[in-house]
Design a protein that fits this description.
This is Alginate export. The protein is mainly beta. It has 2 helices and 20 strands.
């Protein structure tokens, strides 16, 4: 074959590959503009009667850039968060602006890929790993993630190693975990779906001078899984959860804790359903040895989705938590969805010696959701917490000081436009 003919065939082949690759590419540029106005009169913790109710509007803006080809995926999410009034009209924004997600994923072989960068990761019902979408900032992790996916099995292996800055020698680190490794697997079996999760976090130990102590770490392990059941022609779904924690907590205490939870939904019709569930987080009794810890840690899960919308127990009390809840879910018309949920809370273990009961009051949540269009949604709600003296003690508030009736309300508008989509 002469040289000219060879070069012609080579150029033709390169062109064909380039055209095929370009045809398989997709680029999308989208956004999110979300404002949420809240009336806070005892949200998160009871409010003394002498203090004023807060009216606050928070806003989150995101610019999402996504790329997909036959062998590569990439995503970049820029985020700005601020409170209305935080910046004067004549000034530039003083809000928190930065990169929420920035990662690339490469397909090594059919069903096998790896992703590296800052990633929002979610598993199962978002109990332990969640993007925490309700939060104005959200959750994301800097990690390497290996993925295996087949028709009936999925396996993820994640690993992270963190530093506070671009260092050239080992330095003390306390921002979050120093190291993390996790393994997640999912296996469907007909109408049943099984998942398993193991998480190992390393928290850096320090000596009394807050210097690195021979680069040693406390390790916290969480292992367990979920079992879900749903069938198209059966009106009841079930979801069970169980996790065990062991090793050491972030302060070095010996850890022996667990979480048990279940939730079920029964559909009375196409428009009416009833939700019932229970969460049990183990806790530490007041007389437990100071070197031991039985309080479960919720890791990086969604605080707003569990244990009440008012988030009284987003950080679990040392005595643990029991949450028994139920409520209806109704679809009105073709779009409007109304939900009510009543929670009865108590400690898992007696945390305060002077109280002969473990009850932590109750909470009522009402939520309404309405999709205005394909790019705009409206959500609102009201919650009230029926607190008692034990709540005041656990929250470390002043006793015998009048408090407002704890309540919270919100209205949220979310707009998610697509600015550009090229395939």
């Amino acid at each position: 074959m002469n040289k000219r003919l060879f070069v012609s065939f080579l150029l033709l082949g390169i062109t064909a590959v380039a055209v095929e690759e370009a045809a398989a590419q997709a680029v999308t540029i989208g956004g999110e503009l979300r404002t949420r106005t809240e009336v806070r009169s005892g949200a998160v913790t009871p409010l003394y009667d002498s203090l004023g109710t807060a009216l606050v509007t928070v806003m989150r803006s995101r610019l999402n850039l996504a790329y997909t080809s036959n062998v590569m995926k990439a995503k970049l999410v820029l985020q700005d968060t601020h409170v209305f009034g935080q910046t004067a009209p004549t000034a530039l924004s003083t809000s928190t602006f930065g990169v929420y997600e920035a990662w690339g994923e490469y397909l090594l072989a059919p069903g096998i890929s790896f992703a590296m960068g800052r990633q929002a990761i979610e598993y199962d019902d978002k109990r332990l790993f969640s993007a925490s979408n309700w939060s104005n900032t959200g959750n994301a992790h800097d990690l390497l993630l290996m993925k295996y996916t087949s028709t009936d099995f999925t396996l993820h292996l994640g690993a992270a190693w963190n530093n506070a800055s671009d260092v050239y020698q080992e330095t003390a680190y306390s921002t979050t975990y120093k190291s993390m490794t996790y393994l997640w697997a999912s296996k469907p079996l007909g109408n049943i779906n099984l998942t398993a999760l193991w998480v190992n976090e390393g928290y850096q130990r320090t000596n009394n001078q807050a210097n690195v102590n021979d680069n040693k770490r406390w390790y916290r392990n969480t292992v367990g899984g979920n079992l879900g059941y749903s069938a198209e022609n059966f009106p009841v779904t079930f979801y069970g959860t169980g996790y065990y924690q062991f090793g050491h907590g972030t302060t070095g205490k010996g850890l022996d804790a667990y979480l048990l939870a279940f939730k079920t939904q029964a559909k009375a019709s196409k428009t009416v359903a009833v939700n019932v569930g229970a969460d049990y987080f183990s806790g530490s009794k007041y007389d437990l040895a100071t070197t031991e810890d039985h309080t479960f840690n919720k890791l990086f899960g969604s605080n707003h989705s569990f244990n009440g919308a008012m988030e009284y127990w987003k950080s679990l009390p040392s005595g643990g938590l029991v949450d028994l809840y139920f409520g209806p879910e109704v679809t009105i018309g073709s779009k409007l969805k109304a939900e009510a949920s009543y929670h009865a809370f108590s400690l898992a273990q007696q945390q305060v010696k002077t109280f002969n009961h473990k009850g932590l009051g109750s909470e009522l949540d009402l939520t309404f959701t309405y999709p205005v269009s394909s790019i705009m949604s409206l959500q609102g709600g009201w919650s009230g917490y029926f607190a008692n003296a034990l709540v005041t003690s656990v929250k470390k508030l002043k006793a015998n000081v009048d408090q407002k009736f704890p309540q919270w309300a919100f209205i949220m508008i979310t707009i998610k436009p697509t600015f550009l989509s090229v395939k």
